[in-house]
Every structure is written in structure tokens, then in C-alpha cells.
Design brief:
- With 118 residues, the protein is mostly beta strands.
- The chain is 0% helix and 48% strand.
């Protein structure tokens, strides 16, 4: 059974940084592409970034390019999202999902809340 647990969210001021983590279990993490999505008040559910099983060729949504960085540690079954220069519109619940961007109905964790506010 796929289990994904996100952590690292919190309150941060505009321009600040956060790193989210996602601990995976119940499947062979190292062979799966992984994805971050987010649910924001203004834009609903949107794709953030994806990464291949080997950690190469990450993909980012245009709004996150240059500010966010997705990475993974296959030895620790952990996915990361490093977020810099955060903006109020980045506020939302961030989800870790199993599978590449092209998949629909990807299994996801419960999410972690990120709030960007002064």
C-alpha cells in the first residue's frame, strides 16, 4: 500500500525559503518518478514539479522555474521540494504524489500547509 507523508510546511515571510520533505513507503520508491502538486485558494489544484526515478531531468511549472528545486534521496525513500523567494500566491497545501506528470489519479499524501505572509 502506497504511503506518502509530507512535512516541512509552515508560515514564512515573502521572500523566504522552505524545504518540504515527503517520506514514501509501500512501494519501490527508487523506480518511480515523483511529483509535487499544490492546492491554492486562488488557482485550485496545480502541478508544481516532477522528477524521474534517477533524479535527472526535473520539470517545473513556469511560475516555479528558478525558485523551486525538486530532488530526491532514493536511499532514504524521500522526496524534497526546496522553495526560495516565496510569494503570497505560493500559499496552499502541497502534496507529494507517486508517478510522473503525465499520470492521472496519482496516489498522494495528506499534504502540508505552506503559508506565505508578512
Amino acid at each position: 500500500q502506497v504511503q506518502l507523508v509530507e512535512s516541512g510546511g509552515g508560515l514564512v515571510q515573502p521572500g523566504g525559503s522552505l524545504t518540504l520533505s515527503c517520506t514514501a513507503s509501500g512501494f519501490t520508491f527508487s523506480i518511480w518518478s515523483m511529483t509535487w502538486t499544490r492546492q491554492t485558494p486562488g488557482r485550485g489544484l496545480e502541478w508544481v514539479a516532477s522528477i524521474r526515478s534517477g533524479g535527472d531531468r526535473p520539470l517545473y511549472a513556469d511560475d516555479m522555474q528558478g525558485r523551486f528545486s525538486i530532488s530526491r534521496d532514493n536511499a532514504k525513500n524521500t522526496l524534497y521540494l526546496h522553495m526560495n523567494n516565496l510569494k503570497p500566491e505560493d500559499t496552499g497545501v502541497y502534496y507529494c504524489e507517486q508517478g510522473p506528470r503525465s499520470y492521472t489519479n496519482r496516489p498522494r499524501g495528506p499534504g502540508t500547509q505552506v503559508t506565505v505572509s508578512s
